[in-house]
Amino acid sequence: MPKINVLPLSLRNKIAAGEVVERPSSVVKELIENSIDAGSTRITVETSHAGKRLIRVSDNGIGMEREDVLLAFERYATSKISDERDLFHITTMGFRGEALSSIASVAKVRLTTAPRKNNETVLASGTCIELIGGEVKEIKDCPVLGTSIEVKDLFFNTPARRKFLKSDTTENYHIIDTVTRAALAHFPIGFILHMDGSEVLHLPAAFALRERLLQVYGKEFIDGLLETESESGQARVKAFFSTPVNLRNNKNNQFLFINGRPVKDQSVAYAVYKAFEGMLPKEKHPIFFIFLELDPSRVDFNVHPAKREVRFENKSSVFELVYQAVSKTLKHGVTEPWRNEKKKDGAGDNAGVMEYWRTEKRTEEVPHYSNASESPLLHCSETSSPFVGPFAESVPFLYLGDTLVAVSDMKGVTVIDYHAAHERINYERFLKKTGIPSYPLLFPQQVKLPQGEYRVVLDHLAMLNDFGLEVDDFGHGTLLVRSLPEPLRDADAAALMSDVAAALLERDRGMGKEGDAHLEPLEVTRKKIAARLACHSSIRGKEVPDGARIAALMKSLDAADNPHTCPHGRPTRVVVSLEELRRMFRK
Question: What pLDDT, in 10s, does the model give residues 299-309?
Fold first, then answer.
């Protein structure tokens, strides 16, 4: 008996669906792309139960004739390309002819459509087709206004796939993100998104990219971005990106679009980071929206099953175009106020481990000396002991640079990363809810977030309140921040809420670093939020603590449950014993 079998068509389609349809947002993406290719000027997306029960996409595009409807759900049936040359000159969003057949094989699908007449969408006699698991159940004539496709009970016949879907909150976030990316890439098209009967996005057709960004992110966000345009040969780039004082702790607001298609490419992202070289603090990330227009024959979109990655004919020229555009604008658009301006990330001069650190300013800017011997940090005060005692109120120390200081005692030298140590202390205080009062804001701050981040924050308001972060829904993607945890009283509320949303979205992406595998997801989320808040409220490299603050830091660190690492797993201190030092000097 032969061991190799030719798989039946239904099974082949389900295997193909595994590449094209990863989750409900994949269906939304494919259907929106079809609507864009159909010349639509208005696209409406409706979902129920995070797209698991229903996804409906309606548009006012050119529609289809009955003959095309019959062929549309066949695999590799497409109107986008006809021969091999077209495959290397892609000008449409879709081109493989796989999406509809793959979606239909794992769902119950109903399509109604009629060809547009005289460039107007009017009620007309059209075609209605229904499929279940890829099999046509009914096809008939029906009155139709535009084109509408419904996808019900996704993965109803592949329960194993359905089991791996994430929570409704996470799946909704991905759907919102998918619609938002399509809206950013195609600003002349109006987009509407309804979820479970509620309007989540309403973006009228815009006249320019900046207007569409304004619709999605709000005026305050856009006013903090620089804008640039550049051309080289047949390549053109338009970019919006943050200044060196408007940075984030995550990469959530980094977007790349090539010929209207949202993609990811490390070389283009690296070009932006290279332009920011010398301006980015450690673990900070720029916001950017890069819109590239390239000759379709010089970029290959057929290298990823979901078309999320591309291959450039000349990667170095694309890198250079983006790098030069961003770096020149940074050079001329920023007159280096970022070097002296206090960072708006919650790490103000008054952030501290103890309340007493708030009542008296005990930090200073990093000093610069022409001769290292002039630095007072190299000398101990006359009144302080050269050794650190367990109850010392102040300790002599040597500032090494960055966030590192060295403290000596009779047993050797301890090198402390005071930012990491402060993070550990604040992290445990946030988790235990001890010693961190809530600071009511005199004037509550309005924070506008992208819809995905906005909705995930709304789902966790009670948890945030436990951390002293009192937030209310102000409607239309806006949050009202009424109070902050005391160590974060000077924080940039917008950056803080964006970072908190990023932590919440990691709930389904695996466990944390401190043996979280046995914890419930909710507890894992609490730890992630505590880590983000601790990072925002801890001393930064711009500040050099004095001896009293270092002493208080060491005392609090010794009392921590895990004093050896910060919440991210980095060491808080390294001890070099006197014996090790003697061996180094061959004594």
Answer: 887 776 666 78
Amino acid (1-letter code) at residue 128: C
* Amino acid type, 291: F
Digit-coded pLDDT (tens) for 112-150: 999 887 766 666 789 999 999 989 999 999 888 889 999
Q: Render 418-437 in DSSP notation, one character per residue.
A: HHHHHHHHHHHHHHHT-S--
Phi, psi of 497 (to 5 degrees): -70, -35
- Sign, Cα dihedral of 312, 316, 320, 323: positive
Q: H or E stretch including 557?
A: helix 547-558
How many angstroms separate the Cα of 370 from the Cα of each of 62, 297, 349, 381, 402?
71, 56, 25, 22, 18
| Residue 227 bridge partners (DSSP) | 240
**Is the separation of the CB atoms in 528 and 507 below 8 Å?**
yes
Pick from 316, 355, 336, 294: nearest CA to 487: 355
- In the sheet that 198-203 helps form, which strands lie side by side, from edge to edge? 135-145, 123-132, 108-113, 147-152, 54-59, 42-48, 190-195, 198-203
Integer Cα distance of 89 and 298 in angstroms: 8
Query: What does pTM read for this prediction?
Result: 0.75
- Across-strand partners of 364? 544
* Residue pair 263/256 in contact by the 8 Å Cβ criterion: yes
Contact 469, 437 (CB under 8 A): no
- Pair of tokens at residue 281: 């603090």
